[in-house]
Fold:
Amino acid sequence: MDHWGNAVAESFVKGMKCRVCGKSYPVSPNNFCTDDFGPLEMDYDYESIREAISRSKIEMRTWNMWRYREFLPLDHEPTVGLHSGGTPLIKATRLGKALGFDDLYLKNDAVNFPTLSFKDRVVAVALSKAKEFGLKTVGCASTGNLANSVAANAAAAGLESYIFVPADLEKAKILGTSIFGAKVYGVHGTYDEVNRLCTQVAFKFGWGFVNINLRPFYAEGSKSMGFEIAEQLGWQTPDQVVSPMAGGALIGKVHKAFQEAYKCGLLNQVPKTRFYGAQATGCNPITDAVKTNRDQHKPVKKPNTICKSLAIGDPADGFFAAKLIRDSGGWGEDVSDEEIREGMIELAEYEGVFAETAGGTTVAVARNLLQQGKLSPHGKTVLLITGNGLKTQEAIMNNIEPPTHIAATLDAFEAVHVQNQEFPSLVKNTNKGNLLGV
Ligand SMILES: *Cc1c(COP(=O)(O)O)cnc(C)c1O
Ligand SMILES: [Zn+2]
Structure:
């Protein structure tokens, strides 16, 4: 029995495989092929998974990401991040109507446990695997959310953590890392420079960096978001998914989850989901590659956007993300900081969801692609909301009306109440004036 009394599952991992040349590797804390430096990916025995699981078996399990554990690369029961995943899929009727979608949903990982972003899924897998490898020290290069999640989960697991972030990160993302006792380094440089430093540290010190030498395990955690969406839609896949992209892994892993769910008998219909990628114009290597029809992205040297969580100039999975978007019949788009702020406010005012800048980016891109006719207004459309707005307050602080200060009397309230009715929306300073037009 595991932590929740579920029957203990066995491992279905065959090994690791190069995504470029297909060469097989034994399972180890390593992320690249020694022949061509191609990224390594987990390789599973799908026949056995198909025999081992069924919808009803999964449905009896606890509602968190580990109900899909046969598809995750652990040899034993998870030991880190036991409560991650299992987030709501919200039917977004009001936002759908405002944007022009018939059947819109939000997969809300802004309320993931324990650190309020989808990174809790990838870290749960990476650190459980790190413990299987016997690693005592872990770390990451991060644009913020990964830092929070590695620090929190490492603390709870009794692991030492070294976290490297660009020095200009949002305050809440730094605080939300340091609080857990992690060793935090604010590096003077871009994320890509931070990542290069971490690669050197990981191999020199033999530590487990979740998104570097543990990346093949880490990335698989994102699949759980895809499995959950399919199950929450009644074991169906949506027609369209809009995903924010940083390193470009999440979008591909949601696609992979849909394919695996079908392959292993959880879905009746072949998934035909079109994938749409969202970035900020201030750091748009992947959407630029899609729009200019290039296979290989051009790295963005100096990212400049309020959407720091997505600001990876040279994304590790950029090539695969652009290819998936094209092959699935989707598209990519990027939006300005002003549009990102509007997206955040729309999400909040229409659905009561306070998402971070990446959520605003996803909403704004969905609006834009619908207007371009690239996204269809019909069919099931899911927006991936990946992080929490309380962590990126500085991005919209100046766009939100401060509270009206009044004396503690009914007269005082009534006097300002009449005035305030002339300004019913909280939104100001947007390029549309009264953004929501109410
Ligand atoms: C990391 C991150 C992403 C993107 O994930 P990738 O797999 O690197 O593309 C999206 N949203 C948020 C909030 C993130 O922190
Ligand atoms: Zn190879």
User: Anything to note?
Assistant: The chain has a mean pLDDT of 94.
